[in-house]
Amino acid sequence: MQNLLIKSIAMILTLLLSITMLVLTPTIVYAAQFNLTDYCTDIPYSVSVKEGIIHIQSENINEELIIDTPVTACSVYSGLFTFLTYTEYKGDNVAACYCFDINTKKITSVSTRLPIYTDETRFAVDNEGKFYLIERGNNCVVNCFYNGNVIYSVDINSHIYQLMCIDGTHITAITAEGVYIIDENFAVYISDAVPVTPCTYTGKGYIADAQGVEFTYESGGIFVIPEPTASSEYTEPNNQQQTTDISISNEHFYVTFGLTVAKLRNSLGYTKEELIVYKIDGSLYNQGKVGTGMKAVLAGKEYIIIVLGELTGEGNINSKDLKLMMKFLTGEEKPNSSQKLSADINCDGIIDTKDLLSLSKLY
User: Fold this and answer.
1) In degrees, to the nearest 5, what angle opens at C-alpha 171 toward C-alphas 191 and 212?
2) Which superfamily is assigned to 241-362 in CATH?
3) Domain assignments of the chain as residue spans, ordered by start
4) Which residues of the chain have pLDDT under 50?
């Protein structure tokens, strides 16, 4: 009887202790509010997060989904919402990413082993599914995570305040020194604008910083809105003969991007026997778009073809040209004589970030 009484008292004490612990232990509530604008549609969204339930609202949309890990940041591009979260792994907090397509209603997730602060907001995801996150403990380094691994890291050598990828393509880093665009293994300085973060896209090509100051957004670059200036007339470089699409100097054909061999001949009024085009490797080129570095032979005289912005000599302007331009700017590669002329898109005599921006608009 005495043993039964002791056991009963012990059970009551255990129950009371459990109740006390429940009362004293605070309930963790994860809550956040985000106001986003989609770069592709300029549709503004209100995103609220509370206790694992996410509400996405706009004028015609009211969606609810459940993500059972704490959300610290989110972004939207072309109706695809991306949420930065964290989860525990072997006693540490690591980053995880959830994507929700508002058109298909599908949710996908990406788990990483990247250590993360529980209040981290500096992240971005591009339209290829690459996940970019600031390295914990080093505010100058960005890690790119893809297919389960960190595929490269970039050290910008400047404190990074915010990462953005509002157009799905360009990874923009806002730093203490200005704005950089991150590509494979390197970053290119593109603007000296230093907006007060956090910045948000507000539609129609504008970024607003935390103080409400507006900046223009173009192909990953954030720029101070320029004061109106008088327009200046563009002057073609030392031409002896000109058409709408072609300028001929003593040594070069300056050709508009997209011009084919046939149109080149027709524009100048020559037959294929009179005007012969060769590829960079020296082989005859009779059809297709002309590219930088190709050779045109006219009346026995050789001319090098220059297509502004077309750097590879393939005749097309694409991401290869953009990456090559970035390598020129960082010094990783040196342009040859033809590429120097092609890369100077604004024809001011120097290759700089203005040309990079112009090139990004061409492809």
Assistant:
1) 60
2) Dockerin domain (1.10.1330.10)
3) 31-224, 241-362
4) 15-29, 230-243
